């Protein structure tokens, strides 16, 4: 198998895919005051354009190679699941670490169409946590069960995190778009109840009033290249893909500079530990954007 350079050793873009966004005034990517208020009130913000059509095509081409489990760079993933579901008829491809393997997914992290809004919503400088791929094949794509992202991230404190979900296909109700429970970002931290199984597993950790909110979740339909941002406590999930087209997405998870490790164990598989209490940093958690120095 061919050797792949670990791109985590490059804390800046290595290619030209995002040259157009990186040139010029980054303030052109700023969210409006109304958009920021909507995020604060509801816990999410949808419809932010992150990628143009050519960039979507380039990322799809990089992604296509990874569906073969024997692809070059296989050893660089933090996690890699051709199907995180236990059911072969409900497939959820899920992997963490794409930024280490391919230049497009690496350079996406520094795209100001993402980093500038992220800095506004975080209220400070943006540091990388990890990326994810969530892909549902045509006709038998699985679910992503209701969950809060921070329930998986409590090894980092304080909670000053943000998720950006970017569609690489048009995402619709029929093919398994993201659904949100608006206002659930004000709920306390919930226990983990599983990521790729029963959509109703979360019921066991909710009171009746919380569960009533699931009768009218918001379905966020997006065009390919558009994104939604959400709060780390926002309860979200996505249903199965039964259409004749795939639903592919990439996710960038970040936190505000100053977040610290809360464990002496490894934070991500294959990454050297950061001692408990020490600020998150180094080549695996690079600074992506600091508005104070822009």
UniProtKB/TrEMBL annotation:
Origin species: Tautonia sociabilis
Keyword line: Dioxygenase, Oxidoreductase
GO MF entries: 2-oxoglutarate-dependent dioxygenase activity; iron ion binding
Pfam families attached to this UniProt entry: PhyH
Protein name stated in the entry: Phytanoyl-CoA dioxygenase family protein
The protein's required cofactors: Fe(2+)
Sequence intervals crossing the membrane: none
């Amino acid at each position: 198998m061919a050797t792949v350079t670990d791109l985590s050793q490059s804390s800046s873009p290595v290619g030209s895919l995002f040259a157009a966004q990186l040139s010029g005034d980054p303030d052109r990517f700023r969210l409006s005051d109304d958009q920021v208020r909507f995020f604060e009130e509801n816990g999410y913000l949808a419809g932010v354009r992150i990628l143009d059509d050519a960039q979507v095509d380039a990322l799809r081409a990089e992604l296509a190679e990874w569906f073969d489990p024997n692809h070059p760079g296989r050893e660089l993933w933090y996690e890699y699941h051709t199907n995180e579901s236990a059911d072969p008829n409900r497939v959820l491809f899920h992997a963490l670490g794409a930024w280490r393997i391919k230049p497009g997914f690496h350079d996406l992290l520094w795209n100001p169409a993402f980093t500038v809004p992220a800095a506004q919503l975080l209220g400070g400088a943006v540091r990388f946590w990890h990326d994810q791929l969530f892909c549902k094949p045509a006709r038998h794509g699985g679910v992503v069960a209701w969950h809060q992202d921070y329930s998986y991230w409590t090894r980092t404190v304080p909670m000053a995190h943000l998720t950006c979900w970017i569609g690489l296909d048009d995402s619709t109700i029929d093919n398994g778009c993201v659904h949100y429970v608006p206002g659930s970002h004000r709920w306390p931290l919930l226990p983990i109840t599983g990521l790729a199984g029963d959509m109703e597993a979360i019921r066991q950790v909710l009171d009746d009033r919380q569960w009533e909110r699931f009768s009218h979740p918001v379905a966020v339909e997006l065009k390919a290249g558009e994104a939604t941002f959400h709060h780390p406590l926002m309860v979200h999930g996505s249903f199965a893909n039964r259409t004749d087209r795939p639903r592919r997405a990439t996710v960038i998870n970040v936190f505000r500079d100053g977040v610290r490790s809360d464990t002496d164990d490894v934070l991500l598989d294959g990454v050297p530990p950061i001692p408990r209490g020490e600020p998150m940093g180094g080549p695996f958690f690079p600074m992506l954007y600091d508005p104070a120095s822009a």
